[in-house]
Structures are given as structure tokens and as C-alpha cells.
Amino acid sequence: MVLIITSRVDGLPELSVDFAACEAVICADGGLQVAEQLGMPQGKPVYLIGDYDSGTPPTAAERAAAEDLVLLPSVKDMTDSEAAIDYAVAHGFSRIRVLGGLGGRLDHTMGNLGLLAKYAGDPRVEELWFEDGQNRVFLKTPGTFRVPAAGPENRFSYFGLIAYGGAVRGLTITGAKYPLEDHTLTPDTTLGVSNEVAAGSPFAEVTHTEGLLLVILSKD
Fold this sequence. Notes:
Distance between the termini: 27 Å
Number of strands: 12
Largest sheet: 12 strands, mixed
Shape: globular
């Protein structure tokens, strides 16, 4: 698993990062300073990428210690976050977790949701999500997945489901406070928001047969 750290991560005190579980860390733009705040240990393989218009450029020592440094032009057709994800995929990382990218400017947040769609169903990408102190966001293609009850496996209390880019068909939710059976969820409704694992259930199970399902885990 590779961890991408952006220059802005809302709710940083709410995050606890297990750097031992990361094969490497990619710091996008000013993400290196955030990584240091999170306690990234010395010796962890680090890749640096960005135009550094929103963060301090890496020092000579940081450049020398990095596995790679990719300097991007400030005028370009993608964000530093997209460039970092593309870099991770190109270098064979199949499980990608991005810290940041959800707060601040709404156009950046919406663009990042598009990056989830960009790699949805890509055989090179097993897992891709964005996370900050408040939320974790990912996109699911047709199939079944589980949301664990809040606890050691899941620090989030709620989950929301939103149809992305078109209708989600055959949506069935079991083990949740608000179950559904074979429902068609459309993008113009809030029906799927603010659900939670049912009391006494170890998890909620979500299945759908068609469409892209945006999943948002939230603390409150």
C-alpha cells in the first residue's frame, strides 16, 4: 500500500497513520510537512512530487533522501494530487490511500471524486480512497462490500451512499439501520445519506448490480 499525503489534510489531529503498513509515501506539493506532523519515521521510502505553489520546496537534504523527485510546472492540466495518483499507478502500487483532497476548495474536492471514477474498474488499482479527519470516500463498481460497525476496524460512525454519474441499480443494504432491497438509487436524491450499521450487527453489507456507487464514511 502507498500513502499519498497532500498539502492540506483537514482534521489532522483525528488521524493516526500506521506508517509500518505503508510500502512507501508519496508527498504531493507540501505533503512532506504534513507527513512530518503525522510522525513519519526516518527511513521510510518517500517520493516527492509537485509544483510547490502551496508548500515549501524540499530542502537539499530532503531531495537527497527521496527515492524520486518530480518537479511539476505550476501551469498544467492536472492537480498535484492527480499527478501523484498517476505516478503511484504507473509505479505498480495497486492500493492507494490519499490523505487530504476533501476540504477547502469545492472544485478540488469535486475533481478528486472524478479521480475515483477515473480509476474505477481499472485492473491496476485494487483500492483508492481519499481520507481526512472527518471522512473517507471511495467508489465501488458492481459487487458486494461490507462496512464494519464503528470500533477498532472502523473509526467512522456513519456511511452514505450516492449514485455517481447515473443510476445505481439493484442496490441492497442489509445489517443497517436503514435497509434497502433491490432499489434503484438516482443522483438526484439524498435517500442514501446518513446510514449506520444496525445496533448489534458486526457490519452492514451493500450490494449493487449496475452503476458507480460513491461511498462516504463519516465521523458525525
